[in-house]
């Protein structure tokens, strides 16, 4: 077993998942302002450190994706944030793309940037303690989108990124996200997501990326948020499994779903059913941001010094998702 394969499996084994705490300063500012907390480096760190030092980090969270600001910060006990995460028994990771920009040739679509100077940045992050990385490609979905140009350009960027990450002895999370925005049906989402994922793996293989040393972070197969197509959780689970079974090479050790705008309960329920019906060899877990943090953030905002209470809320959500990653969750546990 290679070192990268070993890390990928350890991040996701036994129902563990990934906490996506890699919101940019702009996004985090918006989240804090939404709950009437001033966004300062100290407050951003206080909320994140509250989560990173909670008991569920040891029991439920196998990896934490950090943002550039956070990986360089020190905790209240004066140790570096990656050190705190490692001491809790989790792996520190880092978002390395520099965001989605307008795609030349298709101005209604996006291409993710950040390849310039990436090799040097990766070396620095590795020295800071990162064991894995994340890069997100985003795809609009409609009758005409994603275009062939968008599918190809983002797959190529994800593959070039992954090759550089593995060269630096870290596990790349490959995140091609077909967005939930729109009025598309679940069937349309299935078709477009299948096309996107297949192209990503074509490019990953072309760039000689070791598929045993990556984690795939896809969207679930959902109808658009403006769609009249009402899809049951059972249907979401079955379509998602069908898509991944037909699109992902068997060497990939694990799949960690993004929540993509689902509510906390929806994201947990859908993950649970995916695992109940999972007849593949893939580990199927979670890499959630808002769907892990939102309740904790709301609670924390009422009194930002109530660390214990905030951790209790976060621990509950993490525990629910870890049960779901094993197909053992049920709604009555949410009371």
Describe the structure.
- This protein has one domain (3-326): TIM Barrel (Alpha-Beta Barrel), CATH 3.20.20.
- 47% of the residues lie in helices and 16% in strands.
- It has helices at 3-12, 25-34, 41-52, 56-59, 68-71, 81-87, 118-127, 148-167, 186-206, 233-247, 264-277, 290-302, 307-324, and strands spanning 17-20, 61-66, 91-95, 100-103, 106-112, 132-139, 171-178, 215-216, 254-257, 283-288.
- The strands form 2 sheets. An 8-stranded parallel beta barrel has the order 1-2-3-6-7-8-9-10, surrounded by 7 helices.
- Strand 4 and strand 5 form a beta hairpin.
- The mean pLDDT is 97.
Please sum up the structure shown.
The protein is an alpha/beta fold. The chain is 47% helix and 16% strand.
Low-confidence stretches: none
Tally of contiguous helical segments = 13
The CATH architecture: Alpha-Beta Barrel
Kindly report how far apart the N and C termini lie: 42 Å
Radius of gyration using CA atoms only: 19 Å
Structural class: alpha/beta
Give, in order, the helices and strands.
HEHHHEHHEEEHEHEHEHEHEHH
In CATH terms, what is the fold-level topology?
TIM Barrel
Instruction: Report the principal-axis shape.
Output: globular
For the record, what is the CATH homologous superfamily label?
Answer: Aldolase class I
- What is the beta-strand fraction? 15-25%
Number of domains: 1
Counting DSSP E segments of at least 2 residues, the number of strands comes to: 10
Q: Helix fraction?
A: 40-55%
Let me know the average pLDDT.
97
Q: Numbering strands along the chain, what is their spatial order in the largest sheet? A: 1-2-3-6-7-8-9-10
Major sheet, described briefly? Answer: 8 strands, parallel, barrel
CATH level-1 class: Alpha Beta
